[in-house]
Amino acid sequence: MVKKFPENFLWGGATAANQYEGAYDADGKGWSVQDVTPKGGFGVVTEEPTEDNLKLVGIDFYNRYKEDIKLFAEMGFKVYRTSIAWSRIFPKGDESEPNEAGLAFYDKVFDECLKYGIEPLITISHYETPLHLAREYDGWTNRQLIDFYENYVRTLFTRYKDKVKYWLTFNEINSVLHAPFMSGGIATPPEKLSKQDLYQAIHHELVASALATKIGHEINPDFQIGCMVLAMPTYPMTPNPDDVVAKLEADRQNYLFSDIHVRGKYPSYIKKYFADNNIEIQFAEGDAELLAEHTVDFISFSYYMSTTETATPEKYERGRGNILGGFPNPYLEASEWGWQIDPKGLYIVLNEFYDRYQIPLFIVENGLGAVDKLVEGDDGELTVIDDYRIDYMNDHLVQVGKAIEDGVEVMGYTSWGCIDLVSASTAQMSKRYGFIYVDRNDDGSGSLDRYKKKSFNWYKEVIETNGTSLKEK
């Protein structure tokens, strides 16, 4: 039996607007970068939305949010992480006045959460930059986006200051290195995007994040504002010192983002990288002070897998499904999509982050994407017998408990895709993460009806017992 988690531990689940809301053009909403990527974050970009893009309908949360939040409450959620669609509030992104219908929708969602005692945890920008900002400004390569983002966050913070306490500035901000269009709204093709422009875009996002933290704390000093990074612990392929150096260099690519968010300045290792690659970051007046004086209250992160690195990549085949690159670990099994399963990697991430920063941590994405089969349960109701998901989550949460015993300050855990939604990386419905099955298929067919999986009651018990029902193997 696992020891109890902290009494105030925030148990819940996580989703993103572009993957489950649907209603992509309803009530004045503009197009986002997601509306023209029908095959997922690394797929072909179309001129306009096409019918084969499952994200246009998602799982119709826009019209079914009351039903879904009621199910979350039945599981006992203390917190629910979702995002606001920027283009629902500012359809183009560069307007001065917001779209009231979009703001009113999120008022209803937050009120529904609060009715059940569920704290909203809101990602301000989750892979859904307004398409107009990508096409007209080349996304975050353009410093003007800081101004547009400032207008957006002021609008959100002012409107929801009494309804939302927990905020994340950007989703998986480090993913811009590998998915510049999806993550940063950068329309320049990756093969033509210079390192200078990419890292300048990153600088603009980091400054915008610090500015949001400043504004949020001014509007409501009780706001808790965090960064959000994609965490993927890296192991050296062998004990060869060259492989250990390759691991160090890979780690630094990701630590860059949390280092600046928490410590407020560019670390020395990135300055050397900039010098070696003829990159010269343009700082506007006040940038350095913003970064230094408005650091985050906590670090949140996603964790799905670990990876390995080597100084001799020609000897190995690259991993499948790993956003941040790397090579498969011969000691680990993988999911159906090639994502390696490594519960102890989560223990390592928690300890390494806490050793490095000593500020609270929040696991805001973790879960197993799998093909689920709807069957008739013992009670005659349709369900999914997803023992594989239960095993995955149990083993990861046991490691979270161990990190907490080590003294790591963990605020909470929100499992990814707590209700089935459209995959970000592949735009499939068949890659399911949820405790709740949604009847929708990769061809767009299905009733959109909701069914509780076996994992639904399992997670409900985990929350009810504050983690003591978890089983250490």
TrEMBL record:
Record keywords, A-Z: Glycosidase, Hydrolase
A family per Pfam: Glyco_hydro_1
GO molecular function annotations of the record: beta-glucosidase activity
InterPro entries the record matches: GH, GH_1_N_CS, Glyco_hydro_1, Glyco_hydro_1_AS
Biological process terms in GO annotation: carbohydrate catabolic process
Any single GO CC term annotated in Swiss-Prot or TrEMBL for this entry: cytosol
Active site: E365
SUPFAM superfamilies reported for this sequence: (Trans)glycosidases (SSF51445)
NCBIfam families listed in its UniProt record: PRK09593.1 (NF007158)
Family per record: Belongs to the glycosyl hydrolase 1 family.
Name of the protein in question: 6-phospho-beta-glucosidase
Organism encoding this protein: Enterococcus saccharolyticus subsp. saccharolyticus ATCC 43076
